[in-house]
Amino acid sequence: MTKIISLTSILDDIYDAYGSCEELEIFTKAIHKWDINCIDQLPDYMKLWYSKTLKVYKDMEDLMSKEGKPYRVQYAIEAAKWFHGNYISTKEEYMPIALLSCGYLQLAIASFVGMEDGITKETFNWAANEPKIIRASNIICRLMSDIAGHKVEQERGHVSSAVECYMKQYGVSMQEAYDELNKQINEAWKDINEEFLKPTAAPTSALIRILNLAKVIDLLYKGEDAYTQVGDSAKTSITALLIDSIPI
After folding, report:
1. Residue 35 sits in which domain range?
2. Are 32 and 24 in contact (CB under 8 A)?
3. Would you indicate the residue range of the signal peptide (predicted)?
């Protein structure tokens, strides 16, 4: 899971800051094909990411095959192709593509691969159909990231943002856009809570995994972009979780 998150973070930078339109078109096609033979078509700085990504998923597949669960990795690969292959979008289609390209569905499905606790093929089918709890988590991930990174991204000419789209569509100020998008984030949290209060096709262990990923997003993007620029609040939380002892 750590490797997948790291590779996804690097990919985000490739699309946002480094790749030209021509390079990204070739890159996206290579991801859709998911074939190491495509690597020669890529610029050198993309080759390392492509080879490492395919190897990570191949290693996962080998491990799951030994446990009789190779189908799990196929779901993870399809989610990765779906996510990585849809970065290029028009402003008019921003939110549908943006919810997909935030990567939450990919990470949620990948997180199920090594789990026990009643995770079955039906669980992966359930997640792939983007149930309410995953869509709500997607909204939290996308909107909190867009709000936290908005000012910096506009300075570097990064146009695709829920904030910019809302401001232009409704003719409102930046703060008014922030306020409205935060309302949508709060509604998404209510949707997550609702999913825990009624029967679902997925086991509770899967719901908790989805919830925990959303909580990480909340920690990193509440009031600041602590993922891109790690500040004191994130450092304090990580230290408390992984280093400081718990009094008994």
Report:
1. 1-73
2. no
3. none
